[in-house]
Amino acid sequence: MPPHPESWLRVTEAGLFCEPGGFYIDPTRAVPRAVITHGHSDHARPGHMSVLGTPETLAIMRLRMGEERAGLTQQPLAYHSPLDINGVRVTLVPAGHVLGSAQVVMDWQGSRAVVSGDYKRSPDPTCPPFEPVTCDVFVTEATFALPVFTHPKPADEIAKLLRSASLFPERTHVIGAYSLGKAQRMIALLRQSGWDRPVHLHGAHVAMCALYEELGVKLGPLLPATVKDKAALVGAMVLAPPSAIADRWARRLNDPIPCMASGWMRIRARARQGGVELPLVISDHADWPELLRTAREVQAPEIWITHGREDALIHALSGMGIRGRALHLVGLEEGEE
Ligand SMILES: [Zn+2]
């Protein structure tokens, strides 16, 4: 009988620890050996001795935290290239969340666990799609694990934005989007919808967009959004960090319309609170139907939930004959969406 993953994949104060492999996955504090699913700051933290991740994730970590803090040694591992770590076979498989994002597939003595990190199932032109891997234990997030969270089609949300742009040709649309993943996806979605004019960037987005381009994700013409040159921003699309869309910087633009791209925009009160005039429900996390579909497809008899709204999900899983277990991992916030 192969060992149950419970006996070799443990919850510790620093996060999930693969005991025979001697490595942590997305540890919340500095550890000797870390495997990182993706570059968001609640998963990729500075100060580890050795870091393993996809080449894209390692590049993102170097950009965000600097060469020194992104791991004393960095070991790139491409998708679908199994690596033996102390007898544990580790394979990284696309998670469809942001560029470089990976599920960590671990095989040990005939038992398989998959840690998905964050993921989504809806198509994203900036990263390869999530691939379901059958396993004994699937570890999932539950950020949007309530039936109310059914994300609309991204193309329909972009259509709303373009409609607003044609209704208000003099105004500047300032779109709040997190700098890793969401900003680039918004640009790519705009391009898919036929927006071929330059997209203007708040300074906080420039370096990450340049890195995406360097890594082969084409984003089309990008220009800095400089307040000094307000005239150039008439009718423009400006991407900014969520915190900037209603601040002084944004107010100095041309009669700005604050927009926000996030799964949380499904909740109207949240949009109102943030001063968002045009909420765009575009998420890089699985919605409720995607969570259930994924649970079916990976065929795991048991699903562990790292963080988020686990109660509703555990209930729904039990109706499907799947045992759900809440891990209550700390340090994984809704943070970067
Ligand atoms: Zn993430």
Automatic annotation (TrEMBL):
NCBIfam families: Xnuc_lig_assoc. It comes from the Bacteria. The keyword 4Fe-4S does not apply. The keyword Nuclease applies. It comes from Rhodovarius crocodyli. This is Ligase-associated DNA damage response exonuclease. One of its GO terms (molecular function) is exonuclease activity. InterPro entries: MBL, RibonucZ/Hydroxyglut_hydro, Xnuc_lig_assoc.
